[in-house]
């Protein structure tokens, strides 16, 4: 099974709301479900996790930063990609705080335009009782650990 390293971002706005994207896979084995997840994606060849986080943040939100700091969490799990390939995901999480920011989709790939249906800034109360699937499932624990 192939290892797929990825950088994910916990992007907090000035009101401590967390940015999540709703992913809706229309043409895959996951076509019957959608879920909310953090911005981020695969680490490209030759990139560090930190470099990938900076790139993904810009590509998916339009926010340009010089640094994302140190990783605050890591998780590994089996992930089924669009197309059915199963990989061992190795995700590293970075916390970034921002002022008001309007998300830009200007640098989204064709695939992102197909599967990223919407975005929303979530309060911690909403994250504690989501009405839809949110990944990672321990996102509140990650935020609490980062705050300490």
UniProtKB/TrEMBL annotation:
The keyword Nucleotide-binding does not apply. Its cofactor is Mg(2+). One of its GO terms (molecular function) is hydrolase activity. Keywords: Hydrolase, Magnesium. The keyword Magnesium applies. InterPro entries: Nudix_hydrolase (IPR020476), NUDIX_hydrolase-like_dom_sf (IPR015797), NUDIX_hydrolase_CS (IPR020084), NUDIX_hydrolase_dom (IPR000086). Residues 1-147 form the Nudix hydrolase domain. PANTHER family: GDP-MANNOSE MANNOSYL HYDROLASE (PTHR43046:SF12). Belongs to the Nudix hydrolase family. This is DNA mismatch repair protein MutT. It comes from Nitrobacter vulgaris.
């Amino acid at each position: 099974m192939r290892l797929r390293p990825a950088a994910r971002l916990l992007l907090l706005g000035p009101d401590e709301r967390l940015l999540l994207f709703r992913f809706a896979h229309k043409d895959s084995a996951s076509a019957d479900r959608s879920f909310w997840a953090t911005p981020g994606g695969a680490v490209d060849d030759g990139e560090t996790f930190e470099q990938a986080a900076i790139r993904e943040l810009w590509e998916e939100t339009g926010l340009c930063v010089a640094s994302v700091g140190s990783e605050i969490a890591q998780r590994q799990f089996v992930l089924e990609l669009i197309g059915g390939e199963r990989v061992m995901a190795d995700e590293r999480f970075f916390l970034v705080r921002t002022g008001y920011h309007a998300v830009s989709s200007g640098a989204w790939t064709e695939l992102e335009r197909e599967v990223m249906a919407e975005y929303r800034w979530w309060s911690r109360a909403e994250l504690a009782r989501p009405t839809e699937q949110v990944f990672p499932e321990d996102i509140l624990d990650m935020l609490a650990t980062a705050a300490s």
